[in-house]
Automatic annotation (TrEMBL):
Peptidoglycan recognition protein family domain: residues covered: 1-119
One of the GO biological process terms: peptidoglycan catabolic process
Upper taxonomic lineage: Bacteria, Pseudomonadati, Bacteroidota, Bacteroidia, Bacteroidales
InterPro entries xrefs: Amidase/PGRP_sf, Amidase_domain, EF_Hand_1_Ca_BS, PGRP, PGRP_domain_met/bac
Protein name: N-acetylmuramoyl-L-alanine amidase
Organism field: Bacteroides graminisolvens DSM 19988 = JCM 15093
Length: 150
């Protein structure tokens, strides 16, 4: 399957609370998936953990799984439990390093989006605007931060 998109997620966990790919794997199995739905998890210290094998379709973004690679950074909620870009500096660096590496490995990748950017275009104007976001994941403007030029 041709993967043309990278979709960024957050784990929707509170700032400072670290979870591993193994923990997310257990959550997803509890929800009835056969394994973790993401291909990669980025922990608070910037370490990149493997999730589902990248050669297999993920289970992270309805309608996009067959064409995308799913990356989840740990965090996404502030201390009050509100959506927030909680990425640590090591997480930001690891995310950019991983996206760059995936773009080289998968020349078919044309865009990097946030989960919320995959919301339906309710008014049909071709742009997914914040009022149309069904969820806030991953709590930052992915399209503005990751611009692929090739
Ligand atoms: Zn998500």
């Amino acid at each position: 399957m041709m993967r043309d998109t990278i979709v960024i997620h957050c784990s929707a966990t509170r700032v400072g609370h670290d979870v591993t790919a193994a923990v997310i794997d257990a959550w997803h199995r509890d929800r009835g998936f056969w394994s973790i739905g993401y291909h990669y998890v980025i922990c608070l210290d910037g370490s990149i953990e493997a999730g589902r094998d990248v050669t297999l379709d993920g289970a992270h973004c309805m309608g996009w799984n067959a064409r995308s690679i799913g990356i989840c950074y740990v965090g996404g909620l502030n201390e009050a439990g509100q959506p927030c870009d909680t990425r640590t500096q090591p997480q930001k660096e690891a995310l950019h390093k991983l996206v760059d590496a995936l773009c080289l490995t998968f020349p078919s990748v044309k865009q990097v989006i946030g989960h919320r950017d995959a919301s339906p275009d309710a008014d049909g104007n071709g742009v997914i605007t914040p009022n149309e976001f069904l969820k806030s994941c991953p709590c930052f403007d992915v399209k503005n931060e990751f611009i692929i030029t090739k």
